[in-house]
From TrEMBL:
It comes from Psychrobacillus soli. Pfam families: DUF421 (PF04239). The keyword Transmembrane helix applies. Gene3D superfamilies: bsu07140 like domains (3.30.240.20). It is a multi-pass membrane protein. This is DUF421 domain-containing protein. It is found in: Cell membrane.
């Protein structure tokens, strides 16, 4: 079996969702297990053959990496000397 793309570019495909007899609470539970608490965070979501989900989040919702935070702090320090 191939993975099924249930969310594409942030839009839930209700036909595929219904075809696989899913309930919204099942989807929300699977998202929470991966640290996602809003459908607005999800760009693409695949239902894997084993029932797991694979998520691609929008960059806006990706956590800021520490390396970037250090760079931002250096810029702030330069601007506010």
């Amino acid at each position: 079996m191939e993975p099924v793309k249930l969310i594409s570019d942030g839009k839930l495909d209700m036909k595929k969702f219904d075809k696989h007899n899913l309930e919204m609470e099942q989807l929300c539970s699977a998202l929470r297990k991966q640290g996602v608490f809003s459908l607005r965070e999800v760009r693409d979501l695949f239902l894997e053959p084993g029932g797991d989900v694979t998520i691609n989040k929008y960059v806006l919702y990706e956590p800021v990496k520490m390396e970037m935070s250090k760079q931002m702090q250096m810029i702030r320090n330069l601007l506010y000397c």
